[in-house]
Design brief:
By secondary structure, the protein is an alpha/beta fold. The chain has helices at about 5-10, 25-40, 55-65, 75-85, 100-105, 120-125, 140-150, 170-175, 190-195, 195-210, and strands at about 15-20, 45, 70, 90, 110, 115, 130-135, 155-160, 180-185.
Length: about 210
């Protein structure tokens, strides 16, 4: 596993929860970035699922320069390049291909690829990585799957994402091979629609101490 990027683990160790946020508009994105950061969650994954996502990342980077803003749902080399261009600090994908691994190396962007099976994990190890997103975490076997993987893949670390909420995060965070969890419960559609920035900040404060 030589050549693994230490920057990825450094990012994942900053907080027990990485909020997964899908931006609706730029002002919303800025408010969310500032609320999450105030609440103690400095790492934010912005999914590339809306037309404004790249612009939102750029605005969030400018509005919360001390935060570590990255992109999720990165599917191809073009997106990887765009993320780097707008100031994104890392890229996350639901899965990975050889082409995407190569794009991450070419752009020199810390990359957290998604894996759901042992074979996908071994492919990532062959690419020189040692840290992965386990996705979709609950549907792919949950905490029991990660506990089982700790035997044959003892040096590998994970950020499980998908189906995890405030009530179930702890069962993942207690595992020795989990650095943090990803979750969208902090920025639900309902809370965003209500523009409840104080509520998002409160949830961030609660999430920031989940590993304690």
């Amino acid at each position: 596993m030589s050549g693994a990027d230490p920057r990825v683990r450094a990012v994942l160790k900053l907080a027990p929860v990485i909020p997964v946020f899908t931006p609706g508009d730029i002002d919303e994105a800025v408010q969310v970035a500032q609320a999450l950061f105030r609440g103690g969650l400095p790492v934010i994954e912005v999914t590339l699922r809306t037309p404004t996502a790249m612009e939102a990342i750029k605005a969030m980077v400018e509005a919360a320069p001390e935060a570590v803003i990255g992109a999720g749902t990165v599917l191809d080399a073009r997106q990887m390049e765009q993320v780097k261009a707008v100031g994104g600090r890392f890229a996350v994908s639901p899965g990975a291909t050889d082409r995407l691994y190569a794009a991450a190396r070419d752009t020199d962007l810390p990359f957290l690829p998604g894996v759901a099976t042992s074979s996908e994990l071994m492919r990532g190890l062959e690419q020189g990585l040692d840290t992965f997103k386990f996705f979709p975490a609950v549907q792919a076997g949950g905490a029991a799957m990660l506990a089982a993987w700790n035997g044959p893949f003892g040096d590998v670390r994970f950020c499980p994402t998908g189906g995890i909420g405030a009530q179930t995060a702890a069962q993942f965070l207690h595992l020795p091979n989990v650095l943090c969890v990803g979750g969208s419960w902090l920025t639900t559609r309902e809370r965003l629609a209500a523009r409840d920035w104080a509520g998002i900040e409160r949830l961030a404060r609660e999430a920031a101490v989940l590993a304690g």
